[in-house]
Specification:
By secondary structure, the chain is α+β, with helices and mostly antiparallel strands. The chain is built from seven helices and ten strands.
């Protein structure tokens, strides 16, 4: 009986979303209001909503409630477009919030990846990125300041790609990318305002100069419903 109740509720909201009766960004009624309308328990309502969330149709923001998920942005790693550019090109409004910035000694792991000595000063940058005012991505970036002198004095909520081009006459070219489907760790989930353990996408990116030196190492944590990866290969 419980199974059929939450599946009926799940189908009800799924149809409203697919028919665009409920549009992207629309706030759903509270769980209590839904339960009262359909004469269902809070447990049954929560099960239906969590299933819709797993399908990427709705999302929950801590202390704000449930919302209809906007269309995912398309990310093509081969395009070398910055977050600001590919979000804007797809009709979204990007925004970046700097959470922390500090020069710190390189750990053994980061030093090995960068090909530098352990404890060499590097710049750590922690940012939260938004699409249409919705937090979708957490970045933890380690920057080789020996290759980019003075970058720690710049306004680093802006596009790093544009800053490299304008100030240092550098562009992102070669990169190593690793994509991992994962449960969001607590630090990333907290920064995104969602519950720890939810599905997410973890991207590890290493950007190189033209002479194969590591410019930066970027660890990204995405909401699972916010981005679709598309890679076009041509002969």
């Amino acid at each position: 009986m419980l199974n059929s109740q939450y599946r009926h509720l799940q189908t009800y909201f799924k149809d409203l979303i697919r028919q665009k009766t409920l549009k992207a960004g629309t706030k759903l009624p509270s769980e209590r209001e839904i339960g009262e309308q359909f004469k269902l328990t809070r447990v049954t309502v929560r099960q239906a909503l969590q299933n819709l969330e797993a399908e990427g149709l709705i999302y929950r923001q801590n202390r704000r409630g449930w919302f209809v998920t906007p269309p995912a942005v398309i990310y093509d790693p081969a395009s070398h477009l910055s977050f600001n550019l590919y979000v804007s090109k797809q009709g979204g409004i990007p925004h970046t919030e700097k959470l922390m910035q500090q020069v710190e000694p390189a750990t053994a792991e980061i030093a090995q990846l960068m090909g530098i000595q352990e404890h060499t000063p590097i710049l750590f940058l922690h940012r939260r990125r938004y699409i249409d005012q919705r937090p979708v991505l957490i970045e933890k970036i380690y920057i080789n300041i020996d290759l980019l002198p003075g970058i720690e004095k710049e306004e680093l909520s802006q596009s790093l790609g544009q800053l490299l081009k304008q100030k240092y006459q550098l562009e992102y070219r070669d990169m190593d990318l690793v994509f991992k489907s994962t449960s969001l760790p607590s630090h990333a989930a907290n920064d995104l305002g969602i519950s720890a353990g939810q599905a997410g996408l973890h991207i590890e990116r290493i950007n190189y100069t033209s002479d194969k030196k590591v410019l930066e190492i970027d660890y990204e944590f995405w909401r699972h419903d916010a981005m679709t990866i598309k890679i076009s290969l041509r002969d």
